[in-house]
Amino acid sequence: MAIKSLYADNKTDIQATQLSKNGPTGALPLTDELLRKSPSGNLFGMTVNAGMGWDPTKLANGDVMLISTQGGIKTDKRTVAVGLHNGHFELSDLMTEAADAVAELGFVPHAAFVTDPCDGRSQGTIGMFDSLPYRNDAAIVMRRLIRSLPTRKATIGVAGCDKGLPAMMMALASMHNEPTVLIPGGATLKSNDGEDLGTVQTIGVRYANDEISLDYAASVGCKACASPGGGCQFFGTAGTSQVVGEGLGLAITHSALAPSGQQVWHDMARMSAKAVMGLAERGITTKDILTDKAIENAMVLHAAFGGSTNLLLHIPAIAFAAGCKSPSVADWSRINKEVPRLVSVLPIGPVNYPTVYAYMAGGVPEVMLHLRRLGLLHEDVMTVTGSTLGENLDWWEQSERRQICRAHLEKSEGVSPDEVIFTPEEAKKRGIGSTVTFPTGNIAPEGAVVKSTAIDPSVIDDDHVFRHTAKVKVFTSEKAAIAALKEVGKVVAGDILIVMGGGPKGTGMEETYQLTSALKHLPFGKHVSLITDARFSGVSTGACFGHVGPEALAGGPLGKLQDGDIVEIIVDTVNLEGSLNFIGREGEKVSYEEGAKILAERPMRTDIHEDDDLPDDTRLWAALQDVSGGTWKGNVYNVDRIIEVLEAGKKALAEK
């Protein structure tokens, strides 16, 4: 378009443009002491706040930082620009509620934004290469923005989805000496006439395998979101992160998974703002709330809800930011062996209720009532309500709110709250297994993870052990594996798929939900196992083993497997123990030890490499998190360790 055509239809009267106006009326609430002793930045902040329309007489009352991951543009009447996902599209409403509450208490709210990507939108695309690395970047920017308001009395974080929410918790956890609160973004309402947001992501592979028609795919693909805001209806990484935030004591009681756009959702934001200002008044800070005991409580909640395996990356990162002990694989394994799974929601059921049902059945505090009876919680921890966890649960158990919520679920949906949140006795009676198993073996010497409770019961033996031994089909990228799944007959029942090159060095540790969701919704999928150094979406199910360490591109034995190798998988779904082992080739069975030796002596495959489209930003992230402990330390940036390695490298180069 030529420059003259850009302006051809512009009728603005440029001569009517004002170049100066009178400033705001009134005066700043300055004192002799403020003028003599305050930094110029504090005084300038008052000036620009008055310029933005705040009552100048109230500018000395105290500042509060509000930061969110909101995205998109909407007005009361229309969607102006869509966000990257519905999980951040309505967060401006929660920010408004919290800001109004802060102002009503006499303080000055300041708002800043660091939006977030959508893991659903980027599945199977190069956008996924930025997903996990984004978390670290966002946490850094959030911390920088928070610190850029040095006069703050407290910080309020508002987030709702897979990466923005963990990033926000990492940022808040770093604010050790000040009060902070997390406002979870809630959950999208279920669609009465469509599929959930997890199932709908499989329309491509189902159509390719003649499972659905084109018309059905087009129709159902339009109907999955019944509200424009909130995290997905299933209990994936977004929902799990909200539960973990409340489990940490960083979000107020009964705030996780609130139905987006509803009055209870709005109220939660106002109450959260009041809570954090109460902490400020009492001198209770983040380090008083985020302790080793709080981290363990969050891990217990993760197990009881049957949460996303992505939190194995995020909880250690939050603990690191808080200065707490980072949980080890042994800690995760111990807790998952001790804690029963009590919640029946999408995607692992046993009945696939949407997550807002779990909220209305009592949510996190209801599950905690059962866990406290089993002695699995640290009740003496402080929370952002200003009360201990034990005091919160005492209130919840007798509260009118609890009675109303649970009764409303049964009356409005015809679902008993006790069918959504089970007692431990009922869960045991129904044979509901604990959440996660951490197999090791000669192809996963550092460990791997499987959501063992999500393996289809029909492929588990009568002794509750899943066994699968078969020749492997090796794929050096997720792209190649999904192409094979769409080619009828390429992957069949009984196969073990090896997908390598998906770890931090290869793809930024991409999610492989394309694969796991396809296997769930294809008729033969439950008879196929998947082993990968990539990670999974929180909605993933099946015999899918991820986080295999070391990753292939770091020299891990996974990267030495070949088509036709025989792999043995064993998972005890009751005792939560398992193994992944190479045991030779057809007619040449070997012991685990012999298999390890064979793999050690094999050269690395020459056809695996970092993805051609891997951004330099992600390559840098991969290098920094690698020297900081890697995946099983939460993919964090350990600055002291990074500096140590850099200094050693500089010295080595200088001595050459």
Describe it for me?
The protein is of the alpha/beta class and 656 residues long. Helix content is 39%, strand content 11%. It contains 26 helices and 15 strands. The chain has a 7-stranded mixed beta sheet with strand order 7-11-10-9-8-12-13. A 4-stranded parallel beta sheet has the order 4-1-5-6, with helices on both faces. α13 packs across α17 and α17 (363-373) crosses α18. The longest helix is centred in the middle third of the chain and has 20 residues, at 263-282. It is globular and about 90 Å long. The protein starts with a helix and ends with a helix.
The best one-word shape is globular
Largest sheet: 7 strands, mixed
Uncertain segments: none
Beta-strand percentage range: 5-15%
Mean pLDDT: 94
Structural class by helix and strand composition: alpha/beta
Total number of strands: 15
Count of helices? 26
Rg calculated over all Cα atoms: 26 Å
Helix content: 25-40%
Q: Ends: how far apart? A: 57 Å
What topology does this entry show?
Elements: H1 3-7, H2 32-37, H3 40-51, E1 63-68, E2 73-74, E3 79-81, H4 91-104, E4 108-113, H5 119-122, H6 131-147, E5 152-159, H7 164-173, E6 180-184, H8 203-208, H9 214-220, H10 237-247, H11 263-282, H12 286-289, H13 292-305, H14 311-322, H15 329-338, H16 355-360, H17 363-373, H18 389-398, H19 400-413, H20 424-429, E7 447-449, E8 465-475, H21 478-486, E9 496-499, H22 504-507, H23 513-521, E10 529-532, E11 544-549, E12 566-572, E13 577-582, E14 584-585, E15 588-589, H24 592-601, H25 616-627, H26 639-654
Parallel strand pairs: 1-4, 1-5, 5-6, 8-9, 9-10, 10-11
Antiparallel strand pairs: 2-3, 7-11, 8-12, 12-13, 14-15
Helix pairs in contact: 4-11, 6-7, 7-14, 10-13, 13-17, 17-18
